[in-house]
Amino acid sequence: MNFLSQTIAAKPEPDWAALLALPIAESHDPLVPLGLVNSPLRSYPAYFHQGVPNALSECYVRRCVLFRLYKAARLLPSGIELVVLDGWRPLLVQQYLFDSLFAAMNAHYANDSESELLNRTRRFIAPPSNEPTAPSPHLTGGSVDVALCDVEGLFLDMGTEFDDISPWSYSAAFEAVEKPSAREAEVIENRRLLHSVMIQAGFTNLPSEWWHFDYGNQSWAWSSKSSEAQLGAIELQPLRQRWRRQVAL
Ligand SMILES: C[C@@H](N)C(=O)N[C@H](C)C(=O)O
Ligand SMILES: [Zn+2]
């Protein structure tokens, strides 16, 4: 069996209520910036480059997540690199993403109830929350959005763009194609490669997004059948706040 080309099984959506009820025993692992990472790991803060308000010019993740990203990247065949597109997210960015997609859903599915619109939206964007017991996954620094690129920095074809909201973004979507074309066969291999290295490094995947993986947070605990999460919501400490704390010691 090729451990870098494991088929991706179609999985049901998580039971959100049960997932958000899982306890969090915070590990206090720090947030670390990815600006200085080395090949075969790269960082490209996609929302900053897209001009999303309040998006950070640097990707941040918990340190335990960075170690696992390196593990995943080093499992890749030579010439292919792992690109982090987003990690820790401020609440304002989560709110902006959620509101933007919810508004688009509302405009298109005008007859849907509020809860139907919420379900449609949350397949691709988690509701914004910095509630200590039920934070949005990216607010924990345990979620990452990732892709693959070649040594020239060109993204490999994953079948859809990052953040595409079509059914083809489901991680296992192309596995169901009966007679894949040459391009579809390439997409299947690229997705399997990304999925295989991330799973082997300890991450879990959100079934509706080929790019979204979790470690240590409630989404990870739910998917890995762990009894508790280790990563809750965390804030970046601005210098002014750090100085105020230090001066008071
Ligand atoms: C917005 C998208 N890149 C993403 O991360 N979606 C998941 C569901 C999230 O918002 O946690
Ligand atoms: Zn994500």
From TrEMBL:
Q: Which cofactor does it need?
A: Zn(2+)
The species is Oceanisphaera ostreae
Which EC class, in a word? hydrolase
Instruction: Give the binding site residues for Zn(2+).
Output: H138, D145, H212
Please report the name of this protein according to its UniProt entry: D-alanyl-D-alanine dipeptidase
Q: Does the keyword Cytoplasm apply?
A: no
As to how many cofactors bind and how, the note says: Binds 1 zinc ion per subunit.
Kindly give the HAMAP family that the UniProt entry links to this protein: A_A_dipeptidase
Upper classification of the organism: Bacteria, Pseudomonadati, Pseudomonadota, Gammaproteobacteria, Aeromonadales
Among Gene3D superfamilies, the record links this protein to: 3.30.1380.10
